[in-house]
Amino acid sequence: MRLVLISPKGPLYRHRGGIFKKNLRYAPLTLSTLAALVPPEMDVEITIIDEGVMEVDAAQIEADLVGMTVITGTAPRAYALARQLRNRGIPVVLGGPHITLIPEDAQPHADTIVVGYAEESWPRLLRDFVAGRMQPRYDQAAGLSLAGMPFPKRELMRRGSYITTHVFEATRACIHRCDFCVVPTAWGTKPLQKPVEEVVADIRQHYAKRIIFIDLNLIADREYAAQLFEALIPLKVSWFGLSTTLLGRDRPLLELAARSGCSGLLMGFESITPANLKESKKGFNSPGAYKELVNLLHQYKITLMACFTFGMDHDTPDIFLKTAKFAVDAAIDLPRFAIVTPFPNTGLYKRLMEEGRILTHDWELYDGQHVVFQPAQMSAQELYRGHEQAWKYAYSWGNIARRFWGARIQMPVWMVTNLGYRFYAHHLHDFYNCDWITGRS
Ligand code: SF4
Asked: CATH 3.40.50.280: which residues of the chain?
């Protein structure tokens, strides 16, 4: 059987090569995980296509079955590919975050959909397919456990296309309920964890020394995080991962993270306005303590990528420069700025729908770069322009230098990533297709 697994391209990659090209891309884990979950007794030839790094022509695909993983921003592309493939008689399976958020949107575009995590349902689906009894929908099994799962088949990812394939995952889901976040809506608030010894064995088998954890909140369960960090110490790895700002309030855990090789963290600062954080159910973030947190991380030689989101209801037109100036003053290594996106069926989406403020359901624009709703205290155009202004301010040469002198760590990586983001800041408009808002032709 020939199985083709596709990650369709999103808006950032709609132009050849994407914004970041190879520079800042690491190999995604979803397709290699799905490949590993193919039942061992099945004779399957697997091809992986990540449209983020290669072109795909649906007319050229030869397969008995095609599976696609879909986020909201890639849904239109996935549906278009599915249409072409199904017209040629190739059955299509759709799964992933968008399908889990809004299954009824995807169902008409697929022969079958996978809702929730696929660890149990995907092998079941494949066996059903071979037996000629594939069902229209497969849901995540109750009481799913991540223990004993096969390691992702990273060797199937195209070599040379990524900065690293040493990408790992220890946990899934998050205990928080931020109302703009896909995670609690799609997967609930009960974290799933791989046994620490299995995570370590996976890292060891690749002799990985510089690794990325893609876990959405590595410290969601403090006890598990502490066990994982302890187990990483003997491996002498350097790792980058995601955490909430709460790590700054737990000095013993932060110290353990640093000793385990943590060299970089991505944290969602979201807003410097407490009222925004409270309203979006992320009140555990304290803007008043952000600077202290950045200093603390720098003391432990941890680089910080801090994400800010614009367009929350308490944002006024002066928020963009205020936030970007704050990021420069605080010497945040890599500030990132996004436009708040009401992903389907999240708390934010439901509220904006009730208030009649959703401007479009073109899912391709649901990517954190486009304005898809009516902001409360500014026009949609002001929101877009202000977001662009923040990027340009934070990544001007002078402000890159200012942030560098404030941080003074990780020079080579720091500079490469900053240059990558400077490029991004000055090419945002090239990737924007919201002409009705920007007024651009
Ligand atoms: S802490 Fe992060 S991952 Fe967890 S719900 Fe909030 S935004 Fe999502």
From this structure: 2-139
Question: Distance (Å, rounded) from C-alpha 144 to C-alpha 244?
Answer: 25
184 lines ligand 1 (CB under 6 A): yes
pLDDT per residue, tens digit, the chain (441 aa), is: 999 999 998 765 444 444 444 446 889 999 999 999 999 999 999 999 999 888 889 999 999 999 999 999 999 999 999 999 999 999 999 999 999 999 999 999 999 999 999 999 999 999 999 999 999 999 998 899 999 999 999 999 987 889 899 999 999 999 999 999 999 999 999 989 999 999 999 999 999 999 999 999 999 999 999 999 999 999 999 999 999 999 999 999 999 999 999 999 999 999 999 999 999 999 999 999 999 999 999 999 999 999 999 999 999 999 999 999 999 999 999 999 999 999 999 999 999 999 999 999 999 999 999 999 999 999 999 999 999 999 999 999 999 988 887 665 666 666 777 777 787 777 666 555 444 444 433
User: Residue 100: CB within 6 Å of ligand 1?
Assistant: no
Query: Whose Cα sits closest to atom 1 in ligand 1?
Result: 176
How many other C-beta atoms lie within 10 A of the C-beta of residue 359?
17
Nearest CA to ligand 1 atom 8: 181
Distance, CA of 274 to CA of 286 (rounded, Å): 7
CATH number given to 2-139: 3.40.50.280
Give me ligand 1 centre to Cα 264, in Å: 18
Nearest-10 Cα torsion for 314, 320, 325, 331:
90
| Residues 113/95, Cβ–Cβ less than 8 Å | yes
Does the domain formed by 166-438 have CATH 3.20.20.80?
no
CATH 3.20.20.70 residue ranges for the chain: 166-438
Q: What share of the chain is helix, strand, coil (3-state, %, to 5)?
A: 45, 15, 40
Q: How far is CA 299 from CA 38, 68, 246, in A?
A: 45, 43, 17
pTM of the model: 0.91
Ligand 1 in reach of 181 Cβ (< 6 A): yes
Q: Which atom of ligand 1 is nearest to the CA of 184?
A: 5
Does 220 sit in the ligand 1 pocket, CB within 6 Å? no
Q: Which atom of ligand 1 is nearest to the CA of 270?
A: 7
